[in-house]
Amino acid sequence: MTDEPDPTDVDRREAALVDAFTTEPTAGNVAGVVPDAAGLADDQLRAIARELNASETAFCLPSDDADRRVRYFSPTTEVDLCGHATVALHARLFETGAIDAGTHTLETNAGEIEVEVTDAGRVWMTQHPPTVYEVDVDYDRLGDVLGVTPEAFRDVGAALPVAYATAGLPFLVVPVNFLEHLGDVAPDFDAVEALAAEHDAAGVYAFTFDALGPESTVHGRCFVPGLGIDEDPVTGTASGACGAYLDHFAAFSGGDTSDVPGGAGDAAGSDTPAELVFEQGHYVDRPGTVRVRVDGAAPSVGGDAVTAFEGSIRVPDSADDEIIEI
Hints:
Largest sheet: 18 strands, mixed
Number of strands: 18
Low-confidence stretches: 259-268, 322-326
Structural class: alpha+beta
Number of helices: 7
């Protein structure tokens, strides 16, 4: 006779799917959220992320140095920093009463950051001081990589170049002239991964000022196949990096950086608006909005979030617990 397993021995953790950068469920960018991941091994975190199958899952852990620690996993790998999952996590913690409105410190693999939760539940994530510099990419090759005519880049490239930009997670930022061309993008994802890797970037963020919404600053699309995400619906880290890029190259002053110290923009010197509005996700039927501020030493990204699904997940046994004796 076989003993029945004791159901009370099963480790279950609260889990949710939270749509970030939107107020509508099944829009924006979905993130897995596990509010209490204390004691879970790396292989358990990876297994749960695969099961939730969001582009990233945020696992909340205790921290000795900050209010909390978070680790982010895509279905295939760990990610150092994720904007939409950070917004989703803190919106969920606020919704359930686990945290109050105010400023919170967060330990990540990319360093410690601050997260502000407003009384209305909007979450703002401060990123790291940005690094932005122009890179030399042939437009014909870029057209082949993104599956669009090279003419999509030429007339904007005179003032705004292709560039490396990071405020915590690096991207290759590519300006495109018209929304029609951005919509026509049909990437060769292997080539996108290779191009990003050449420039030590996580992926490629293409944008145009030819946006849909009357309040929107730009429309963006983000491709991160190296992290297992062909097209990310709405990307906080890339929006912050692009905001820093626009400020650095004085995009709102016609590219004139003559009055900007060191040729790098700031909110006063480059006429960058106090708050930028980035729309994204429409081409994958997950529209969302990221708000970006670049008026300080580091950009911050903000947005709303809504819980689409909540429940619990059974934690698989850890492979670390399986001791093989030879």
